[in-house]
Design goal:
This protein is 37% helix and 21% strand. A 7-stranded mixed sheet has the order 3-2-1-4-5-7-6, sandwiched between helices. Helix 1 crosses helix 2, helix 4 packs parallel to helix 5 and helix 6 packs antiparallel against helix 8. It is globular and about 55 Å long. The protein is α/β, with parallel strands linked by helices and 223 residues long. The chain contains 8 helices and 7 strands. The two termini are 29 Å apart.
């Protein structure tokens, strides 16, 4: 199965061995299906929409009949993942939804963690709002980067509830080391907030941090 650049980047970021990988809302199960090929983990496909899970089940039955014992399907709110029912290393992937929803899901999931769990996030927007929420949760950064697909730039956040990792920052650190991609991402982000009313209290903190963003991108080297 050939993945698009965004999903392939998410797949390639994962270098650890997991016993359980949760594919949550990730483009009709394509990413989880790729992990059926590349890992020995049990893959959990999750979506709140029954029709989408039915489609994933149909595709898996058709294209991956030999892996039937290595995956499970759930029509379930991602906020209610039964992580505590499983032992071993677990990775939860949430991609393709907005930063606001991702923040809500992460808050719920982190309230009920037992043992160390890793998270791979790739929201479609509202990254700053998401990072503010993540800072309040017991999480650290394993890896962060940017990926561009179809003229849209995404942030990739690989996090852990374990003790090893970097502190989550409001604007990110490594994402500003991508040369011209970082500079274009800055321009797109500033353009977005320029179209948001500056009187909106929700976005005032961002305007105070734009100079920091400029400083971070000025330090990057061209690709």
């Amino acid at each position: 199965m050939k993945l698009g650049k965004r999903l392939q980047t998410l797949h390639d970021v994962v270098t650890e061995n997991y016993q359980h990988i949760w594919d949550c809302c990730c483009d009709h199960g394509q990413l989880g299906a790729q992990f059926l090929h590349s890992s020995q983990a049990h893959i959990h496909f999750v979506d709140v929409v029954p029709a989408l899970i039915a489609k994933v089940k149909l595709d898996l039955t058709r294209f991956f009949p030999e892996t039937e014992t290595r995956y499970s399907l759930y029509t379930l709110d991602v906020a209610k993942l039964p992580l505590a029912q499983h032992s071993g290393r677990q990775l939860v992937i949430i991609a393709g939804v907005g930063g606001d929803l991702t923040a809500e899901l992460m808050t719920s999931l982190c309230c009920n963690l037992r043992g160390d769990v890793d998270f791979l996030l790739c929201p479609v927007h509202h990254h700053y709002t998401l990072r503010q929420t993540l800072q309040s949760l017991p999480l650290k950064v394993i890896h962060e980067s940017l990926v561009e697909e179809n003229r849209r730039i995404y942030e990739v956040l690989y996090l852990t509830s374990g003790k090893t990792g970097a502190t989550i920052t409001p604007l990110g650190e490594a994402i500003w080391q991508h040369g011209t991609l970082s500079k274009r991402y800055l321009e797109k982000t500033l353009d977005h907030y320029a179209r948001v009313p500056k009187a909106n209290p929700k976005h005032k903190p961002f305007y105070r941090l734009t100079n920091t963003l400029h400083y971070k991108t000025q330090r990057t080297q061209p690709d």
